[in-house]
Amino acid sequence: MAYDTILYERRGAVALITLNRPDKMNAWTPGMAEEQADAIGRANADPEVGAIVMTGAGRGFCAGADMDATFQTRISGDDPGANTAEGQGGMPEGLDWVALARESKPLVAAVNGAAVGIGMTMVLPFDVILASEKAKFGMLFIKVGLVPELASTSLLVQRVGFGHASEMCLSGRLVLADEAHGWGLADRVVAPDALLDEAMALAETIAANPDPQLRMTKQLLTRNASESDLLLVQQRESELLRACWKTPEHAEAVEAFLDKRPPVFVRR
Hints:
About 45% of the residues lie in helices and about 15% in strands. Helix 9 runs antiparallel to helix 10. The protein is of the alpha/beta class.
């Protein structure tokens, strides 16, 4: 697929996806979502890639949905993308963004500016969110007569708690980086000129670990995050733990530890 609204590049073991509509603060369209999904799939299929970073071009991460290309188009009677009326949360039909993010190789968001509306909800299922000191977050759906999407009414509660999630969704106010960090929405706040470097460094650290076990760990975190049955949690963990015992990655890690050397994992 040729990309018109994003950029894709590989830097070592990390794939970098950049939302690239800087003149519109990287406003989202269903077409952009298809390109993002293709780029994530491309990274997942590349054995040289161990983790993915997503950021925005210019001074914003994503200013939400493009008002004219999405909402006004729909109000006028046309579908703004590939049958978004039948899709999840305005996504093109067949694109389950949340499942894609949770089943993907590890995803790190480098939020370099405003991340509002779908610009915020798209990164809630990511594994780590790094924010520039200039970042701001907003659940602005209420301001345009809509409700949140992409499982954000669950994922946001998991990240910041019921009260803070309610405040963001019901007021629609913007939350600046330091407050977002204090709430647990941003996992780390970084100086603007250091944001991408720090995100890439974190992704490289993650990418150095064995891919099958990274995927298994993500699966456990996804399924167990809100599971109250601790016996079921342990059963899921034990099932994958037994699978890990039989892997070459586990054998290599143990051998490397005993040999006092760094492990070398073969990407598959």
